[in-house]
Amino acid sequence: MANGAGWFDRFVNSLPERGWFKSLSNIVVVPFWAAVDPRPKLPGGPRPSVQPSESLQRMMNLIMPLKNKSPVGRAMAAMVISQNIDEIFTGLDNVGTIHFARFIIIDDNLCMLSVYDGDFSNYIRDFIVAIGNVFDGILSQVEGGDDVIPTRDNVDKFIDWVHDRDLFQLPDFATDIFALQDAAMGRPANSAAHKLDELPRAMILQLKANPNFSLGGGYRGYAGLSVAQIRQKFGLGW
Length: 238
Prior knowledge:
single chain; alpha+beta; Alpha-Beta Plaits; two-stranded parallel sheet; 5 strands
């Protein structure tokens, strides 16, 4: 607020920093908002785009809770990956659209973080062809994984399975959350004007529905020559 704001505006703006209000908001305010004006959980992964440049370097943040939430369970998951690492890397090379990929374990979750080009569904289909049999072993260690094994026989179901566990990506421009919420609730995007001062409430409610999320689509860029230029120089084509 500007320095000329009234005392009430200054008081309201100071509430998030007050300890008593932090407790009150968690126990009363946010649950009340969610009860009277709920926001649907928004899907994970990058959103469809007609801009070709936005189909380059897309992120997948796949979060898979482990069945065995103990050091033994984490070790078993790590063993499945380490025993098949050569096949995994060769398969990812064969997919041809992946820039980076890695597996990490955070708390009781096995996570696969990757950056790829193009359409999400096609990426997962190519992924299954390349290392589906290895990934079946990984899925045997995580909750819900048995439902899509073998992945080669459950391609569409596996695509949905991954999409459900891919982190929701907050829009890079915060006000775009209004259009996403409108679409999820079956309304034309921005059919009714949204006030800017409604943004904090809209964001809080969405992050209650999506407690785990990615902060935007991330930075995308190439240092020096692009991959396409490098491949062209080697005569490999794109």
